[in-house]
Amino acid sequence: MDDDQENLSMLVPFLPQDLLNRLRISSERTGCSAMNLIEKALREFLEGTPRNNAVYLSTPINALVEGLYVENTTMAEIKKHGDFGLGTFNFLDGEMVLLDGNVYQIRSDGNVYQVKDDEKSPFVCVTFFNPDTIDDLENSNNSRGFYDLLNSLIPSENMLYAIRIDGSFIHVKTRVVPRAENYTPLVEATKNQPVFEFHNMRGSLAGFYTPRFMESLNAPGYHMHFLSEDRQHGGHLIDCILGRVRIGIQHVPKLDVGLPVTLDYLTADLTRDVGNDLDKAEH
Amino acid sequence: MDDDQENLSMLVPFLPQDLLNRLRISSERTGCSAMNLIEKALREFLEGTPRNNAVYLSTPINALVEGLYVENTTMAEIKKHGDFGLGTFNFLDGEMVLLDGNVYQIRSDGNVYQVKDDEKSPFVCVTFFNPDTIDDLENSNNSRGFYDLLNSLIPSENMLYAIRIDGSFIHVKTRVVPRAENYTPLVEATKNQPVFEFHNMRGSLAGFYTPRFMESLNAPGYHMHFLSEDRQHGGHLIDCILGRVRIGIQHVPKLDVGLPVTLDYLTADLTRDVGNDLDKAEH
Protein backbone atom coordinates (compact mmCIF):
# COMPACT_ATOMS: atom_id res chain seq x y z
CA MET A 1 0.00 0.00 0.00
CA ASP A 2 1.53 3.33 -1.00
CA ASP A 3 1.36 6.56 1.01
CA ASP A 4 -1.54 8.09 -0.89
CA GLN A 5 -3.58 4.97 -0.47
CA GLU A 6 -2.87 4.92 3.24
CA ASN A 7 -3.79 8.59 3.67
CA LEU A 8 -7.03 8.07 1.84
CA SER A 9 -8.07 5.12 4.00
CA MET A 10 -7.34 7.21 7.07
CA LEU A 11 -9.35 10.12 5.73
CA VAL A 12 -12.48 8.09 5.01
CA PRO A 13 -11.89 4.75 6.73
CA PHE A 14 -15.53 3.73 6.37
CA LEU A 15 -15.37 3.47 2.55
CA PRO A 16 -14.78 0.02 1.02
CA GLN A 17 -11.45 -0.68 -0.64
CA ASP A 18 -12.76 -0.76 -4.26
CA LEU A 19 -14.22 2.71 -3.87
CA LEU A 20 -11.02 4.05 -2.29
CA ASN A 21 -9.09 2.73 -5.32
CA ARG A 22 -11.43 4.40 -7.76
CA LEU A 23 -11.36 7.62 -5.75
CA ARG A 24 -7.56 7.66 -5.88
CA ILE A 25 -7.52 7.04 -9.66
CA SER A 26 -10.10 9.76 -10.25
CA SER A 27 -8.13 12.15 -8.06
CA GLU A 28 -4.95 11.50 -10.07
CA ARG A 29 -6.77 11.92 -13.39
CA THR A 30 -8.61 15.12 -12.51
CA GLY A 31 -6.01 16.74 -10.28
CA CYS A 32 -8.72 17.31 -7.64
CA SER A 33 -8.03 16.21 -4.09
CA ALA A 34 -10.02 13.27 -2.73
CA MET A 35 -11.66 15.61 -0.20
CA ASN A 36 -12.72 17.85 -3.03
CA LEU A 37 -14.21 14.96 -5.03
CA ILE A 38 -16.14 13.69 -2.02
CA GLU A 39 -17.57 17.16 -1.45
CA LYS A 40 -18.61 17.45 -5.12
CA ALA A 41 -20.12 13.97 -5.16
CA LEU A 42 -22.12 14.64 -2.02
CA ARG A 43 -23.42 17.98 -3.31
CA GLU A 44 -24.66 16.41 -6.53
CA PHE A 45 -26.18 13.49 -4.64
CA LEU A 46 -28.03 15.62 -2.09
CA GLU A 47 -29.29 18.06 -4.69
CA GLY A 48 -30.47 15.16 -6.78
CA THR A 49 -31.23 15.21 -10.47
CA PRO A 50 -34.83 16.08 -11.20
CA ARG A 51 -36.66 13.00 -12.45
CA ASN A 52 -37.30 13.03 -16.19
CA ASN A 53 -41.07 13.58 -16.48
CA ALA A 54 -41.43 11.73 -19.77
CA VAL A 55 -43.44 8.95 -21.32
CA TYR A 56 -40.87 6.40 -22.51
CA LEU A 57 -41.59 4.01 -25.37
CA SER A 58 -39.07 1.20 -25.83
CA THR A 59 -40.00 0.98 -29.56
CA PRO A 60 -42.23 2.89 -31.98
CA ILE A 61 -45.51 0.95 -31.88
CA ASN A 62 -45.65 0.67 -35.69
CA ALA A 63 -42.87 -1.95 -35.44
CA LEU A 64 -45.22 -4.01 -33.25
CA VAL A 65 -48.09 -3.49 -35.68
CA GLU A 66 -45.91 -4.89 -38.47
CA GLY A 67 -45.26 -8.05 -36.43
CA LEU A 68 -41.88 -7.40 -34.76
CA TYR A 69 -42.51 -9.26 -31.50
CA VAL A 70 -38.94 -9.97 -30.37
CA GLU A 71 -36.62 -7.32 -28.93
CA ASN A 72 -33.73 -7.40 -26.46
CA THR A 73 -35.17 -4.85 -24.04
CA THR A 74 -35.13 -6.33 -20.52
CA MET A 75 -37.39 -5.36 -17.63
CA ALA A 76 -34.25 -4.15 -15.81
CA GLU A 77 -33.61 -1.67 -18.64
CA ILE A 78 -37.27 -0.62 -18.75
CA LYS A 79 -37.32 0.12 -15.02
CA LYS A 80 -34.67 2.81 -15.60
CA HIS A 81 -37.36 4.72 -17.51
CA GLY A 82 -40.36 4.21 -15.24
CA ASP A 83 -42.12 2.47 -12.37
CA PHE A 84 -45.57 2.59 -13.97
CA GLY A 85 -47.03 1.62 -17.31
CA LEU A 86 -48.02 -1.11 -19.69
CA GLY A 87 -46.82 -3.13 -22.65
CA THR A 88 -46.45 -6.68 -23.85
CA PHE A 89 -43.79 -9.42 -23.85
CA ASN A 90 -41.62 -11.08 -26.47
CA PHE A 91 -43.77 -13.17 -28.84
CA LEU A 92 -46.71 -10.93 -27.83
CA ASP A 93 -47.14 -13.23 -24.83
CA GLY A 94 -49.80 -11.38 -22.84
CA GLU A 95 -50.52 -7.96 -21.38
CA MET A 96 -48.01 -6.16 -19.17
CA VAL A 97 -48.90 -4.03 -16.16
CA LEU A 98 -46.15 -2.10 -14.34
CA LEU A 99 -47.32 -0.80 -10.94
CA ASP A 100 -45.05 0.68 -8.24
CA GLY A 101 -42.03 -0.84 -9.96
CA ASN A 102 -43.51 -4.38 -10.07
CA VAL A 103 -44.09 -6.05 -13.44
CA TYR A 104 -47.07 -8.37 -13.98
CA GLN A 105 -47.85 -10.56 -16.99
CA ILE A 106 -51.46 -11.42 -17.75
CA ARG A 107 -51.41 -14.32 -20.21
CA SER A 108 -54.23 -15.46 -22.47
CA ASP A 109 -55.02 -18.33 -20.03
CA GLY A 110 -56.28 -15.53 -17.79
CA ASN A 111 -53.61 -16.05 -15.14
CA VAL A 112 -51.25 -13.42 -13.79
CA TYR A 113 -47.52 -14.05 -13.43
CA GLN A 114 -44.77 -12.06 -11.69
CA VAL A 115 -42.09 -11.04 -14.17
CA LYS A 116 -38.35 -11.19 -13.55
CA ASP A 117 -35.87 -8.47 -14.48
CA ASP A 118 -34.24 -10.49 -17.27
CA GLU A 119 -37.45 -11.09 -19.25
CA LYS A 120 -37.80 -9.14 -22.48
CA SER A 121 -40.32 -7.00 -24.26
CA PRO A 122 -40.86 -5.74 -27.83
CA PHE A 123 -42.95 -2.77 -26.63
CA VAL A 124 -43.53 -0.91 -23.38
CA CYS A 125 -44.91 2.51 -22.49
CA VAL A 126 -43.76 3.67 -19.04
CA THR A 127 -43.17 6.70 -16.84
CA PHE A 128 -42.33 7.51 -13.22
CA PHE A 129 -45.82 8.03 -11.87
CA ASN A 130 -46.31 11.22 -9.90
CA PRO A 131 -49.87 12.53 -10.33
CA ASP A 132 -50.60 16.24 -10.78
CA THR A 133 -54.27 15.80 -9.87
CA ILE A 134 -56.06 13.28 -7.65
CA ASP A 135 -59.83 12.87 -7.77
CA ASP A 136 -61.92 10.68 -5.47
CA LEU A 137 -65.04 9.45 -7.23
CA GLU A 138 -68.22 8.07 -5.73
CA ASN A 139 -70.51 5.59 -7.49
CA SER A 140 -72.65 8.49 -8.63
CA ASN A 141 -70.61 8.98 -11.77
CA ASN A 142 -72.04 5.88 -13.43
CA SER A 143 -74.48 7.84 -15.52
CA ARG A 144 -71.77 8.70 -18.02
CA GLY A 145 -69.39 6.37 -19.79
CA PHE A 146 -65.85 5.70 -18.59
CA TYR A 147 -64.14 7.37 -21.54
CA ASP A 148 -66.42 10.43 -21.33
CA LEU A 149 -65.37 10.75 -17.71
CA LEU A 150 -61.67 10.58 -18.65
CA ASN A 151 -62.22 13.18 -21.38
CA SER A 152 -63.62 15.53 -18.75
CA LEU A 153 -60.45 15.14 -16.65
CA ILE A 154 -57.96 15.82 -19.42
CA PRO A 155 -57.44 19.47 -20.36
CA SER A 156 -55.83 19.09 -23.82
CA GLU A 157 -55.81 16.54 -26.62
CA ASN A 158 -52.22 17.56 -27.47
CA MET A 159 -50.56 16.55 -24.19
CA LEU A 160 -49.52 13.13 -22.86
CA TYR A 161 -51.13 11.92 -19.64
CA ALA A 162 -50.39 8.98 -17.34
CA ILE A 163 -53.57 7.76 -15.65
CA ARG A 164 -53.85 5.53 -12.60
CA ILE A 165 -57.20 4.46 -11.15
CA ASP A 166 -57.41 2.46 -7.90
CA GLY A 167 -60.47 1.21 -6.05
CA SER A 168 -63.61 -0.81 -6.68
CA PHE A 169 -64.92 -1.61 -10.13
CA ILE A 170 -68.57 -2.56 -10.70
CA HIS A 171 -67.75 -4.13 -14.05
CA VAL A 172 -64.51 -4.60 -16.00
CA LYS A 173 -64.20 -6.06 -19.49
CA THR A 174 -60.71 -6.94 -20.74
CA ARG A 175 -59.05 -8.94 -23.45
CA VAL A 176 -55.66 -10.62 -23.45
CA VAL A 177 -53.49 -11.09 -26.52
CA PRO A 178 -52.38 -14.69 -27.12
CA ARG A 179 -48.74 -15.62 -27.77
CA ALA A 180 -47.96 -15.32 -31.49
CA GLU A 181 -45.24 -16.20 -33.94
CA ASN A 182 -42.79 -13.41 -34.71
CA TYR A 183 -43.64 -11.52 -37.94
CA THR A 184 -47.41 -12.23 -37.72
CA PRO A 185 -49.07 -8.85 -38.47
CA LEU A 186 -50.80 -7.49 -35.35
CA VAL A 187 -54.26 -7.52 -36.97
CA GLU A 188 -53.83 -11.29 -37.54
CA ALA A 189 -52.34 -12.01 -34.11
CA THR A 190 -55.18 -10.24 -32.32
CA LYS A 191 -58.10 -11.71 -34.31
CA ASN A 192 -59.04 -14.28 -31.68
CA GLN A 193 -58.41 -12.86 -28.26
CA PRO A 194 -60.04 -14.23 -25.11
CA VAL A 195 -62.29 -11.70 -23.39
CA PHE A 196 -62.65 -11.57 -19.60
CA GLU A 197 -65.40 -9.95 -17.53
CA PHE A 198 -65.17 -9.15 -13.85
CA HIS A 199 -67.87 -7.90 -11.47
CA ASN A 200 -67.48 -6.00 -8.21
CA MET A 201 -63.75 -6.36 -8.11
CA ARG A 202 -61.09 -4.20 -6.49
CA GLY A 203 -58.07 -3.37 -8.60
CA SER A 204 -56.04 -0.85 -10.54
CA LEU A 205 -55.99 0.58 -14.04
CA ALA A 206 -52.64 1.76 -15.39
CA GLY A 207 -52.43 3.61 -18.66
CA PHE A 208 -51.93 6.63 -20.83
CA TYR A 209 -53.61 9.14 -23.08
CA THR A 210 -51.62 9.84 -26.27
CA PRO A 211 -52.43 12.48 -28.90
CA ARG A 212 -53.67 11.07 -32.21
CA PHE A 213 -50.79 12.64 -34.16
CA MET A 214 -48.34 10.30 -32.36
CA GLU A 215 -50.13 7.18 -33.60
CA SER A 216 -47.07 5.77 -35.40
CA LEU A 217 -45.21 5.79 -32.07
CA ASN A 218 -47.80 4.91 -29.41
CA ALA A 219 -51.38 3.65 -29.25
CA PRO A 220 -53.41 6.86 -29.68
CA GLY A 221 -56.18 7.92 -27.29
CA TYR A 222 -56.66 5.99 -24.03
CA HIS A 223 -54.71 2.77 -23.58
CA MET A 224 -55.17 1.11 -20.19
CA HIS A 225 -54.43 -2.24 -18.59
CA PHE A 226 -56.30 -3.66 -15.58
CA LEU A 227 -54.90 -5.64 -12.65
CA SER A 228 -57.04 -6.92 -9.77
CA GLU A 229 -56.04 -6.08 -6.19
CA ASP A 230 -55.36 -9.76 -5.47
CA ARG A 231 -53.07 -9.88 -8.56
CA GLN A 232 -55.09 -12.82 -9.97
CA HIS A 233 -56.89 -11.16 -12.92
CA GLY A 234 -56.45 -8.46 -15.49
CA GLY A 235 -55.95 -7.59 -19.14
CA HIS A 236 -56.15 -4.86 -21.76
CA LEU A 237 -59.14 -2.69 -20.83
CA ILE A 238 -62.07 -2.71 -23.26
CA ASP A 239 -64.52 -0.90 -20.98
CA CYS A 240 -65.49 -0.59 -17.33
CA ILE A 241 -68.02 0.83 -14.88
CA LEU A 242 -66.30 2.47 -11.95
CA GLY A 243 -67.28 2.07 -8.32
CA ARG A 244 -65.56 4.14 -5.64
CA VAL A 245 -62.16 4.96 -7.05
CA ARG A 246 -59.29 7.38 -6.81
CA ILE A 247 -58.11 8.76 -10.16
CA GLY A 248 -54.59 10.13 -10.43
CA ILE A 249 -53.55 12.02 -13.54
CA GLN A 250 -50.03 13.11 -14.44
CA HIS A 251 -49.45 15.66 -17.19
CA VAL A 252 -46.38 14.54 -19.13
CA PRO A 253 -44.76 17.19 -21.35
CA LYS A 254 -42.18 14.90 -23.00
CA LEU A 255 -42.11 11.79 -25.16
CA ASP A 256 -38.95 9.64 -25.31
CA VAL A 257 -38.85 6.93 -27.95
CA GLY A 258 -36.19 4.22 -28.22
CA LEU A 259 -35.34 2.90 -31.68
CA PRO A 260 -34.18 -0.74 -31.59
CA VAL A 261 -30.75 -1.39 -33.07
CA THR A 262 -31.74 -4.83 -34.35
CA LEU A 263 -31.61 -6.18 -37.89
CA ASP A 264 -35.38 -6.80 -37.80
CA TYR A 265 -36.13 -3.20 -36.91
CA LEU A 266 -33.51 -1.62 -39.15
CA THR A 267 -34.74 -3.53 -42.22
CA ALA A 268 -38.50 -3.37 -41.52
CA ASP A 269 -40.88 -1.66 -43.93
CA LEU A 270 -42.47 0.96 -41.67
CA THR A 271 -43.89 3.16 -44.41
CA ARG A 272 -47.52 2.05 -44.06
CA ASP A 273 -50.08 4.17 -42.21
CA VAL A 274 -50.77 1.86 -39.26
CA GLY A 275 -53.55 3.85 -37.58
CA ASN A 276 -56.40 1.67 -38.82
CA ASP A 277 -54.59 -1.59 -38.06
CA LEU A 278 -53.97 -0.39 -34.53
CA ASP A 279 -57.61 0.52 -34.02
CA LYS A 280 -58.66 -2.93 -35.21
CA ALA A 281 -56.10 -4.71 -33.06
CA GLU A 282 -56.83 -2.75 -29.90
CA HIS A 283 -60.59 -3.23 -29.76
CA MET B 1 -24.36 21.68 18.18
CA ASP B 2 -26.02 18.37 19.05
CA ASP B 3 -24.27 15.01 19.32
CA ASP B 4 -25.10 13.82 15.82
CA GLN B 5 -23.80 17.01 14.35
CA GLU B 6 -20.58 16.71 16.32
CA ASN B 7 -20.09 13.08 15.29
CA LEU B 8 -20.61 13.97 11.67
CA SER B 9 -18.06 16.75 11.69
CA MET B 10 -15.56 14.37 13.29
CA LEU B 11 -16.30 11.75 10.66
CA VAL B 12 -15.74 14.03 7.68
CA PRO B 13 -14.13 17.16 9.14
CA PHE B 14 -13.11 18.41 5.69
CA LEU B 15 -16.71 19.01 4.54
CA PRO B 16 -18.14 22.55 4.85
CA GLN B 17 -20.83 23.21 7.45
CA ASP B 18 -23.74 23.66 5.00
CA LEU B 19 -23.06 20.27 3.44
CA LEU B 20 -22.82 18.61 6.86
CA ASN B 21 -26.22 20.06 7.73
CA ARG B 22 -27.77 18.75 4.56
CA LEU B 23 -26.13 15.38 5.03
CA ARG B 24 -27.60 15.11 8.54
CA ILE B 25 -31.09 16.06 7.30
CA SER B 26 -30.90 13.57 4.46
CA SER B 27 -29.70 10.87 6.83
CA GLU B 28 -32.66 11.50 9.17
CA ARG B 29 -35.12 11.47 6.28
CA THR B 30 -33.86 8.34 4.59
CA GLY B 31 -32.77 6.35 7.64
CA CYS B 32 -29.40 5.75 5.95
CA SER B 33 -26.25 6.49 7.91
CA ALA B 34 -24.11 9.41 6.79
CA MET B 35 -21.33 6.95 5.94
CA ASN B 36 -23.72 5.06 3.74
CA LEU B 37 -24.89 8.20 1.94
CA ILE B 38 -21.32 9.32 1.28
CA GLU B 39 -20.52 5.90 -0.18
CA LYS B 40 -23.60 6.01 -2.44
CA ALA B 41 -22.87 9.57 -3.55
CA LEU B 42 -19.29 8.74 -4.41
CA ARG B 43 -20.25 5.62 -6.39
CA GLU B 44 -22.75 7.55 -8.50
CA PHE B 45 -20.26 10.38 -9.01
CA LEU B 46 -17.37 8.13 -10.06
CA GLU B 47 -19.51 6.00 -12.37
CA GLY B 48 -20.87 9.11 -14.07
CA THR B 49 -24.01 9.30 -16.19
CA PRO B 50 -23.55 8.41 -19.85
CA ARG B 51 -24.58 11.18 -22.24
CA ASN B 52 -28.07 10.74 -23.66
CA ASN B 53 -27.58 9.83 -27.34
CA ALA B 54 -30.92 11.24 -28.50
CA VAL B 55 -32.34 13.63 -31.05
CA TYR B 56 -34.23 16.26 -29.04
CA LEU B 57 -37.12 18.22 -30.52
CA SER B 58 -38.32 21.17 -28.47
CA THR B 59 -41.80 20.87 -30.03
CA PRO B 60 -43.58 18.48 -32.40
CA ILE B 61 -43.08 20.09 -35.83
CA ASN B 62 -46.79 19.91 -36.64
CA ALA B 63 -47.33 22.79 -34.19
CA LEU B 64 -44.95 24.87 -36.36
CA VAL B 65 -46.76 23.79 -39.52
CA GLU B 66 -50.03 25.06 -38.02
CA GLY B 67 -48.47 28.47 -37.40
CA LEU B 68 -47.40 28.37 -33.74
CA TYR B 69 -44.28 30.50 -34.02
CA VAL B 70 -43.89 31.71 -30.42
CA GLU B 71 -42.64 29.49 -27.59
CA ASN B 72 -40.76 30.11 -24.34
CA THR B 73 -37.88 27.75 -25.06
CA THR B 74 -34.58 29.63 -24.58
CA MET B 75 -31.25 28.78 -26.19
CA ALA B 76 -29.92 28.10 -22.66
CA GLU B 77 -32.57 25.39 -22.24
CA ILE B 78 -31.90 23.98 -25.70
CA LYS B 79 -28.17 23.67 -25.02
CA LYS B 80 -28.96 21.22 -22.22
CA HIS B 81 -30.13 18.83 -24.96
CA GLY B 82 -27.41 19.30 -27.55
CA ASP B 83 -24.47 21.20 -28.99
CA PHE B 84 -25.39 20.55 -32.63
CA GLY B 85 -28.48 20.98 -34.75
CA LEU B 86 -30.89 23.31 -36.43
CA GLY B 87 -34.20 25.08 -36.00
CA THR B 88 -35.81 28.47 -36.25
CA PHE B 89 -36.56 31.44 -33.98
CA ASN B 90 -39.68 32.99 -32.50
CA PHE B 91 -41.80 34.57 -35.25
CA LEU B 92 -40.07 32.19 -37.69
CA ASP B 93 -37.28 34.76 -37.86
CA GLY B 94 -34.68 32.92 -39.93
CA GLU B 95 -32.78 29.65 -39.98
CA MET B 96 -30.88 28.37 -36.93
CA VAL B 97 -27.57 26.53 -37.04
CA LEU B 98 -26.11 25.09 -33.82
CA LEU B 99 -22.44 24.10 -34.23
CA ASP B 100 -20.07 23.16 -31.37
CA GLY B 101 -22.46 24.76 -28.90
CA ASN B 102 -22.65 28.11 -30.76
CA VAL B 103 -26.00 29.31 -32.10
CA TYR B 104 -26.21 31.25 -35.38
CA GLN B 105 -29.23 32.98 -36.90
CA ILE B 106 -29.40 33.39 -40.68
CA ARG B 107 -32.09 35.97 -41.38
CA SER B 108 -33.90 36.57 -44.66
CA ASP B 109 -31.66 39.60 -45.35
CA GLY B 110 -28.97 36.97 -45.89
CA ASN B 111 -26.90 38.06 -42.89
CA VAL B 112 -25.76 35.85 -40.04
CA TYR B 113 -26.16 36.87 -36.39
CA GLN B 114 -24.76 35.39 -33.16
CA VAL B 115 -27.57 34.35 -30.84
CA LYS B 116 -27.65 34.92 -27.09
CA ASP B 117 -28.76 32.36 -24.53
CA ASP B 118 -31.97 34.19 -23.64
CA GLU B 119 -33.37 34.25 -27.19
CA LYS B 120 -36.29 31.94 -27.84
CA SER B 121 -37.35 29.35 -30.38
CA PRO B 122 -40.62 27.64 -31.36
CA PHE B 123 -38.78 24.63 -32.86
CA VAL B 124 -35.31 23.12 -32.67
CA CYS B 125 -33.85 19.72 -33.45
CA VAL B 126 -30.56 19.07 -31.61
CA THR B 127 -28.22 16.40 -30.28
CA PHE B 128 -24.76 16.09 -28.75
CA PHE B 129 -22.74 15.40 -31.88
CA ASN B 130 -20.42 12.42 -31.65
CA PRO B 131 -20.08 10.73 -35.05
CA ASP B 132 -20.00 6.95 -35.41
CA THR B 133 -18.49 7.12 -38.89
CA ILE B 134 -16.26 9.69 -40.57
CA ASP B 135 -15.71 9.71 -44.34
CA ASP B 136 -13.31 11.95 -46.23
CA LEU B 137 -14.58 12.66 -49.73
CA GLU B 138 -12.66 13.87 -52.75
CA ASN B 139 -14.22 15.91 -55.57
CA SER B 140 -14.70 12.69 -57.49
CA ASN B 141 -18.11 12.09 -55.96
CA ASN B 142 -19.74 14.82 -58.03
CA SER B 143 -21.13 12.38 -60.55
CA ARG B 144 -23.99 11.52 -58.27
CA GLY B 145 -26.37 13.82 -56.50
CA PHE B 146 -25.90 14.97 -52.91
CA TYR B 147 -28.95 13.15 -51.54
CA ASP B 148 -28.03 9.92 -53.37
CA LEU B 149 -24.63 10.13 -51.69
CA LEU B 150 -26.25 10.54 -48.25
CA ASN B 151 -28.56 7.59 -48.94
CA SER B 152 -25.51 5.44 -49.59
CA LEU B 153 -24.07 6.39 -46.18
CA ILE B 154 -27.17 5.64 -44.14
CA PRO B 155 -27.84 1.97 -43.37
CA SER B 156 -31.54 2.10 -42.43
CA GLU B 157 -34.53 4.30 -43.18
CA ASN B 158 -35.91 3.54 -39.70
CA MET B 159 -33.10 5.09 -37.64
CA LEU B 160 -32.33 8.71 -36.79
CA TYR B 161 -29.01 10.15 -37.94
CA ALA B 162 -27.18 13.38 -37.18
CA ILE B 163 -25.06 14.47 -40.15
CA ARG B 164 -22.25 17.01 -40.16
CA ILE B 165 -20.32 17.90 -43.31
CA ASP B 166 -17.31 20.24 -43.19
CA GLY B 167 -15.05 21.38 -46.03
CA SER B 168 -15.32 23.00 -49.43
CA PHE B 169 -18.52 23.27 -51.41
CA ILE B 170 -18.52 23.78 -55.19
CA HIS B 171 -22.09 25.02 -55.14
CA VAL B 172 -24.63 25.58 -52.37
CA LYS B 173 -28.25 26.64 -52.82
CA THR B 174 -30.19 27.72 -49.72
CA ARG B 175 -33.35 29.54 -48.81
CA VAL B 176 -34.12 31.53 -45.67
CA VAL B 177 -37.57 31.84 -44.13
CA PRO B 178 -38.72 35.45 -43.57
CA ARG B 179 -40.10 36.64 -40.23
CA ALA B 180 -43.85 35.97 -40.06
CA GLU B 181 -46.84 36.83 -37.93
CA ASN B 182 -47.75 34.22 -35.32
CA TYR B 183 -50.58 31.88 -36.50
CA THR B 184 -49.74 32.24 -40.22
CA PRO B 185 -49.83 28.66 -41.57
CA LEU B 186 -46.33 27.52 -42.57
CA VAL B 187 -47.29 27.02 -46.25
CA GLU B 188 -48.31 30.70 -46.37
CA ALA B 189 -45.30 31.97 -44.41
CA THR B 190 -42.87 30.14 -46.68
CA LYS B 191 -44.42 31.09 -50.03
CA ASN B 192 -41.92 33.83 -50.82
CA GLN B 193 -38.55 32.89 -49.44
CA PRO B 194 -35.31 34.47 -50.68
CA VAL B 195 -32.97 31.96 -52.27
CA PHE B 196 -29.18 32.23 -51.97
CA GLU B 197 -26.51 30.61 -54.12
CA PHE B 198 -22.85 30.27 -53.18
CA HIS B 199 -19.92 29.03 -55.25
CA ASN B 200 -16.60 27.58 -54.10
CA MET B 201 -17.25 28.31 -50.47
CA ARG B 202 -15.91 26.63 -47.34
CA GLY B 203 -18.45 25.86 -44.67
CA SER B 204 -20.47 23.33 -42.70
CA LEU B 205 -23.76 21.53 -43.10
CA ALA B 206 -25.57 20.52 -39.90
CA GLY B 207 -28.63 18.33 -40.04
CA PHE B 208 -30.53 15.15 -39.56
CA TYR B 209 -32.18 12.24 -41.29
CA THR B 210 -35.60 11.37 -39.81
CA PRO B 211 -37.78 8.37 -40.73
CA ARG B 212 -40.91 9.26 -42.68
CA PHE B 213 -43.19 7.77 -39.99
CA MET B 214 -42.12 10.52 -37.58
CA GLU B 215 -43.29 13.30 -39.91
CA SER B 216 -45.77 14.78 -37.40
CA LEU B 217 -42.84 15.32 -35.00
CA ASN B 218 -39.86 16.25 -37.18
CA ALA B 219 -39.17 17.17 -40.81
CA PRO B 220 -38.90 13.75 -42.49
CA GLY B 221 -35.95 12.69 -44.65
CA TYR B 222 -32.88 14.94 -44.80
CA HIS B 223 -33.10 18.37 -43.19
CA MET B 224 -29.86 20.37 -43.26
CA HIS B 225 -28.78 23.93 -42.68
CA PHE B 226 -25.62 25.51 -44.14
CA LEU B 227 -23.22 27.94 -42.50
CA SER B 228 -20.13 29.33 -44.25
CA GLU B 229 -16.74 29.01 -42.55
CA ASP B 230 -16.51 32.80 -42.21
CA ARG B 231 -19.96 32.79 -40.52
CA GLN B 232 -21.26 35.32 -43.06
CA HIS B 233 -23.67 33.19 -45.13
CA GLY B 234 -25.98 30.23 -44.82
CA GLY B 235 -29.56 29.01 -44.87
CA HIS B 236 -31.82 25.99 -45.19
CA LEU B 237 -30.16 23.67 -47.72
CA ILE B 238 -32.00 23.11 -50.98
CA ASP B 239 -29.14 21.33 -52.79
CA CYS B 240 -25.37 21.35 -53.09
CA ILE B 241 -22.37 20.00 -54.96
CA LEU B 242 -19.65 18.88 -52.59
CA GLY B 243 -15.96 19.60 -52.97
CA ARG B 244 -13.45 18.04 -50.59
CA VAL B 245 -15.37 17.41 -47.42
CA ARG B 246 -15.42 15.32 -44.28
CA ILE B 247 -18.78 13.68 -43.54
CA GLY B 248 -19.55 12.63 -39.97
CA ILE B 249 -22.60 10.52 -39.27
CA GLN B 250 -24.00 9.68 -35.85
CA HIS B 251 -26.55 6.87 -35.45
CA VAL B 252 -29.10 8.06 -32.91
CA PRO B 253 -31.32 5.34 -31.38
CA LYS B 254 -33.62 7.67 -29.41
CA LEU B 255 -36.06 10.50 -30.09
CA ASP B 256 -36.99 12.90 -27.27
CA VAL B 257 -39.86 15.30 -27.94
CA GLY B 258 -40.87 18.19 -25.70
CA LEU B 259 -44.54 19.18 -25.62
CA PRO B 260 -45.02 22.91 -24.89
CA VAL B 261 -47.15 23.70 -21.87
CA THR B 262 -48.57 26.85 -23.45
CA LEU B 263 -52.19 27.79 -24.10
CA ASP B 264 -51.47 28.05 -27.84
CA TYR B 265 -50.11 24.51 -28.00
CA LEU B 266 -52.63 22.95 -25.64
CA THR B 267 -55.59 24.36 -27.59
CA ALA B 268 -54.20 23.93 -31.13
CA ASP B 269 -55.95 21.72 -33.67
CA LEU B 270 -53.19 19.24 -34.52
CA THR B 271 -55.41 16.59 -36.12
CA ARG B 272 -54.49 17.39 -39.74
CA ASP B 273 -52.03 15.26 -41.68
CA VAL B 274 -49.24 17.82 -42.14
CA GLY B 275 -46.89 15.76 -44.33
CA ASN B 276 -47.80 17.51 -47.59
CA ASP B 277 -47.71 21.00 -46.08
CA LEU B 278 -44.26 20.29 -44.71
CA ASP B 279 -43.00 19.08 -48.09
CA LYS B 280 -44.32 22.26 -49.72
CA ALA B 281 -42.85 24.53 -47.05
CA GLU B 282 -39.43 22.87 -47.00
CA HIS B 283 -38.64 22.99 -50.71
Explain what the structure shows.
2 copies of one chain form a homodimer. By secondary structure, the first copy, chain A, is an alpha+beta fold. Helix content of chain A is 25%, strand content 35%. Chain A has 2 domains: 2-46, no CATH class; 95-282, 60s Ribosomal Protein L30, Chain: A (2-Layer Sandwich). In chain A, helix 1 (3-11) crosses helix 2. The model of chain A has no long low-confidence stretch (mean pLDDT 92). At the A-B interface, helix 2, helix 3 and strand 14 of A face helix 2, helix 3 and strand 14 of B. Strand 14 of chain A pairs antiparallel with strand 14 (254-258) of chain B, so a sheet runs across the interface.
Summary keywords:
alpha+beta; 9 helices; 7-stranded mixed β-sheet; 2 domains; 5-stranded antiparallel β-sheet; 283 residues; 14 strands
Predict the CATH topology of the largest domain in chain A.
Answer: 60s Ribosomal Protein L30, Chain: A
Query: Main interface pair?
Result: A-B, 53 and 54 residues
Largest sheet: number of strands, sense, barrel closure of chain A:
7 strands, mixed
User: How many structural domains of chain A?
Assistant: 2
- Would you identify the CATH H-level superfamily of the largest domain in chain A? Hypothetical protein, similar to alpha- acetolactate decarboxylase, domain 2
Global structural class of chain A: alpha+beta
CATH architecture of the largest domain in chain A: 2-Layer Sandwich
Alpha-carbon distance between the termini of chain A?
68 Å
Q: What percent of residues of chain A are in strands? A: 25-35%
Write down how many β-strands of chain A occur, each being a DSSP E stretch of 2 or more residues.
14
State the order of secondary-structure elements of chain A, H for helix, E for strand: HHHEHEHEEEEEEEHEHEEEEHH
Q: Work out the radius of gyration of chain A.
A: 23 Å
Q: Mean pLDDT across all residues of chain A, rounded?
A: 92
Q: Which CATH first-tier class of the largest domain in chain A would you pick?
A: Alpha Beta
How would you name the oligomeric state of the polypeptide chains in this document?
A: homodimer
Shape of chain A: globular
Please list the strands of the largest sheet of chain A in the order they lie side by side. Answer: 6-5-4-3-8-1-14
**Helix content estimate of chain A:** 10-25%
Helix segment tally of chain A: 9
Instruction: List low-confidence stretches of chain A.
Output: none
